[in-house]
Amino acid sequence: MRLVRNEAAAQDLFQAVWIRVMEKEHSFDPARSSFDPWLYAIAHNLAMDFLRRSKFETTGAEAPEPTQPPDAESGLAHASRMAQVRGAIARMDAPQRELLALRFDQEMSLAEIAQVTGTPVATVKTRLHRTLAAVRRLVQ
Length: 140
Known about the structure:
- This protein is mainly alpha-helical.
- 69% of the residues lie in helices and 0% in strands.
- The protein has a single domain (7-139), classed as Orthogonal Bundle (Arc Repressor Mutant, subunit A), CATH 1.10.10.10.
- Helix 2 crosses helix 5.
- The longest helix is centred in the first third of the chain and has 20 residues, at 35-54.
């Protein structure tokens, strides 16, 4: 949902991912890879194909609301800051949003992200560093 920003498309892609998993289950080798990166690689490829085909970018989905700290004043400051961060992320392109989602939402290692996206670990590090720097610039 965070990547394609369209609920109907996300549901269709979710189903397509599991169909592809069933079609390609014979190609999964647990000795080479764990299941999660293999699954995310399938989802990544289908989502990127969808975005390329449709050139579809909307501004819909937002991250879930954070929990508020107990102090009301610091809670407002925290909520304001998180709104700025969510806004900055919403303005980023799909590959940047995906990178942030894999790293921070799915808590994947850089090596797992590299496996999912089919890029070298050094490239993942560079892209993550640049994406985080862009978020910082947009939030300042």
